[in-house]
Amino acid sequence: MHITQLNRECLLHLFSFLDKNSRKNLAKTCHKLLEVFQDPLLWSLLNFHSPVELKKDNFLLGPALKYLSICWYSERVKVCNIEDWMKNSFQKDFCNRHENTVSDFLLDVCNRCPNLLSLTLSGCGHVTDDCILHVLKNCPNLKSLKLENCVRITDRTLEAVTLHGGSLRTLHVDFCRNVTQAGLERVRQKCPSVTLRADRSANMIPDSKPEKRLMLEKASRKLVQL
Fold this sequence. Notes:
Keywords: Ubl conjugation pathway. This is FXL22 protein. The mean pLDDT is 85. This protein is an alpha/beta fold. Strand 3, helix 7 and strand 4 form a beta-alpha-beta unit. The radius of gyration is 20 Å and the shape is globular. The relative contact order is 0.09. It has 10 helices and 6 strands. A 6-stranded parallel β-sheet has the order 1-2-3-4-5-6, with helices on one face. The chain folds into 2 domains: 42 residues, Up-down Bundle (Monooxygenase), CATH 1.20.1280; 181 residues, Leucine-rich repeat, LRR (right-handed beta-alpha superhelix), CATH 3.80.10.
């Protein structure tokens, strides 16, 4: 029996066991398998392990996407998660090659995937507070937001959670060294139903300039007092 003789449900089940590259390669063999590849039901979960993967055409973004994970663990993570003012010219050039890759991808997610339930970002040095704000506004059903070692995440993201994370039930900001204890306390007060985890975040030595850090902490204390 040839694979193309299987019905649509069987083919979708078969494709679900394949990685993105294998799905794409199989889809190139005939029109029927291409239609299966393009079925939104196949793309409810996506995992990425390098910035390069975000630029490939071996996946589809659509309203069926529920679970998204973008995590890289490499030497590139160490460079990208250094504060800009601490980078030398070589490191800046290195990071500029993919500075907008993640933010552009997340913007596409906001536009195409309104039913997203879970977003995990780890080691993404270019993720900004604005990125997370757009996700929270455009994905109102988001229940789980896990951020790890995202150096640009600050108390602005925590504030966005209190304003736009109505469906959120899990928030992790582990190793996000530029959030403050005041910002975390604000989330605990405003969103008691959210399970908040912040391992090695606000207690770490931040990489921002000391004078800038002091200003951020003072502003955060004022917000909590309000």
